[in-house]
Amino acid sequence: MAAPAKLIAIIASLSLSLYSLYLLTNRRRAISHSKHKTLITTHNNNKPKRNGIVGAIGNTPLIRINSLSDATGCEILAKAEFLNPGGSVKDRVAVKIIEEALESGQLLKGGVVTEGSAGSTAISLATVAPAYGCKCHVVIPDDAAIEKSEILEALGATVERVRPVSITHKDHFVNIARRRALEANKLALQDINQTDTKNVTNTNGYSSDKGQQGAIVSSEHKGGFFADQFENLANYRAHYEGTGPEIWEQTGGKLHAFIAAAGTGGTVAGVSRFLKEKDPGIKCFLVDPPGSGLFNKVTRGVMYTKEEAEGKRLKNPFDTITEGIGINRLTENFKMAQLDGAFKGTDIEAVEMSRFLLKNDGLFIGSSSAMNCVGAVRLARLLGPGHTVVTILCDSGMRHLSKFCNPEYLSQHGLTPSAKALEFLDCR
Ligand SMILES: Cc1ncc(COP(=O)(O)O)c(C=O)c1O
Fold first, then answer.
1. Are 263 and 229 in contact, with CB atoms under 8 Å apart?
2. Which residues are near ligand 1 (CB < 6 Å)?
3. Residue 117: which pLDDT band, with cuts at 50, 70 and 90?
4. Where are the transmembrane segments (predicted)?
5. 3.60.20.20, 3.40.1390.10, 3.90.1310.10, 3.40.50.1100: which CATH number matches 90-226?
6. Residue boundaries of the structural domains of the chain
7. Closest-CA residue to 325 (of 120, 70, 101)
8. How is 383-416 classified by DSSP, letter by letter?
9. What is the average pLDDT across 115-141?
10. SS3 for 14?
11. pTM
């Protein structure tokens, strides 16, 4: 009897151990499952909700461009600004311009924001204006791609296509846009006078322009505001308060250099000022397309010869395929930049770079972004391996289908890409 009793005892103790093991394993599984669940839940809860379209602007990802980083031995990082709701870096600027104008009382809800722009800023203004209860009127040169005015109209903006003339001409599209805001204000003032409303004090910051007739802007008499992206420092502040701090946070302050091309100069100005205030050792550079005077300004202190000054030429002074960058006058925004140096970039380099990034990284970017990446590689090579260089991907190739991303157009201009790798950057 002793042997079976012993056997039973052994079996019982074995079963108990197995049962305990089973319980333990299941508990671990349960804990691990619930941990995983918690992680997922926490992750979801931590994703901040964005407040409307305006809240969805900014906080763009900082992407490591693997191909360029591997090729240079540097970390080449780029802000994916093409992911903003309006498709470009200019969304930040549009928001800042409108918000500052509303705060100062220069723009009223229901008023019209006017801008002379053939590009991204107009699209961004048209995108965000309705979120502020405002309208948007855009004046563009009639040689700008037709898709641009179609997009603007689809967004609800009114569009005026005008003959391209020099910036010094009163009918340059920027000058007409300024005038349209004045005309809208004139209408608003007439309204105020007619209703004799003594308590209404808003004049939107402008006096009526008696010399201008035939306003085509109807703002339902709430007045107008000229966005003026080149001279309005709200542009610079959008980057000083937004893009710059985001780059600093996303890199943990561990970056050595920043580089971008300039149109209005808002991006290089805002980002360079912010980064230099954080760490004066961060090198800030400009990359400049053909036809622009900024390279000379940064490297030699002189922008142009007298003959080249903007306004002395009859039409478009630029000889570049890149859009939105390059300029021959010193804007208030650019004056805020703190730059250590500049590089020149060519059209073929920008085209080749865009194809290289598409092939190697799956990045489909526009012409100014491609020029920025040309600059980033130049700067990385200047600094040497082991450095972190940040740049901007301003918009996507989707905005450039008819020219920069059109093989026929490129072939007509002798810009057909043929490089196998980055050898095109050594050909100068
Ligand atoms: C597509 C694109 N990239 C770059 C820029 C240049 O940026 P910024 O005006 O801040 O110098 C512009 C300006 O209009 C632009 O439209």
1. no
2. 88, 90, 119-121, 262-267, 323-325, 366, 368, 394-395
3. confident
4. 6-25
5. 3.40.50.1100
6. 52-83+242-426, 90-226
7. 120
8. H-TT-EEEEEE-BBGGGGTTTTT-HHHHHHTT--
9. 94
10. helix
11. 0.83
